Amino acid sequence: SAVISQKPSRDICQRGTSLTIQCQVDSQVTMMFWYRQQPGQSLTLIATANQGSEATYESGFVIDKFPISRPNLTFSTLTVSNMSPEDSSIYLCSVEVWTANNEQFFGPGTRLTVL
Amino acid sequence: RKEVEQDPGPFNVPEGATVAFNCTYSNSASQSFFWYRQDCRKEPKLLMSVYSSGNEDGRFTAQLNRASQYISLLIRDSKLSDSATYLCVVIQNTGGFKTIFGAGTRLFVKA
C-alpha cells in the first residue's frame, strides 16, 4: 500500500494568483498522477508526473497553467497558475502500486476555492 | 459517448436491500476493471477488482461481461455505512496504460 499526504488540505485564493500543492508518498513510486474532481463530477487526469523528465499532460491541460515538479520518487508538486473561479475544484494526487490489483492510492485532496 | 458510463443515480434504498450498479465501457482495449468507493469529501479507495470469472467479497459481488463491455456491482444486505459514491474504473491499454474513471453512482442507505 501507499500513504499519501497533501498540503494544503484546502485554500481560498484570489483570482489571478497561483497555488502550489504538495504531495508526499511514504514509499518510492515510479509514477505519480494529478487529478481534478469538480463538484459532482468524477476524476479527470491532469497529468502524469515523471521523475527526471517533464510531466505528461492530458488533452485540455497545459504546462503553463499546471506546472508540475517531480524532484524525487516520493514527492511532487502541482501549481495552479493565474487562477480563475473555474479552477475551483478538488485536486488529488495519486500513485499506482503494481500489485495483483494494480491499485491506485489517492491523497486526501486539496479543496481549492477561487474567488 | 463517454468512455465509461454509469447509472446516474442516486440510489435511495432501505437497510437490508440489495442494490445493483451498472457500468459500460466503450473501448474494447480495456483490460482491467475496478470498483472504487468514495465517501463524501474523501478520496476514492479501491473496493474491489473485477475479473472475467466474477468475484465476491462478503456482501459485494462484481461481474464483468467483456462481450457486452459491461461491469456490475451487487451489494446485498445494504448497511448504512455503504452510503457512498461508487466509481467504475477501467484501465485501457492503447499503446500505454490509461485509467478512466466513471462519473460515479451515489448510494444512500436509510434506516
Describe what you observe in this structure:
The complex is a heterodimer of chains A (115) and B (111). Chain A has 115 residues and is mainly beta. Chain A is 0% helix and 53% strand. Chain A has no helices and eleven strands. In chain A, strands 2, 4, 5, 6, 9, 10 and 11 form a seven-stranded mixed β-sheet that branches. In chain A, β5 (43-50) and β6 form a beta hairpin. The radius of gyration of chain A is 13 Å and the shape is globular. By secondary structure, chain B is mostly beta strands. Chain B contains no helices and eleven strands. Chain B has strands spanning 4-6, 11-14, 19-25, 30-38, 45-50, 55-57, 60-65, 70-75, 84-93, 97-101, 105-110. In chain B, the strands form two sheets. In chain B, strands 2, 4, 5, 9, 10 and 11 form a six-stranded mixed β-sheet that branches. The radius of gyration of chain B is 14 Å and the shape is globular. Chain B starts with a strand and ends with a strand. The model of chain B has no long low-confidence stretch (mean pLDDT 92). Classes of the chains: A mainly beta (115), B mainly beta (111).
Count of DSSP H/I helices of chain A:
0
**Coarse shape of chain B:** globular
Mean pLDDT of chain A: 92
| Low-confidence residue ranges of chain B | none
Structural class based on helices, strands and sheet pairing of chain B: mainly beta
Compressed to H and E, one letter per element, the order of chain A equals EEEEEEEEEEE
Strand content of chain B: over 45%
Order of helices and strands of chain B: EEEEEEEEEEE
The overall average pLDDT of chain B, rounded, is 92
Helix content of chain B: under 10%
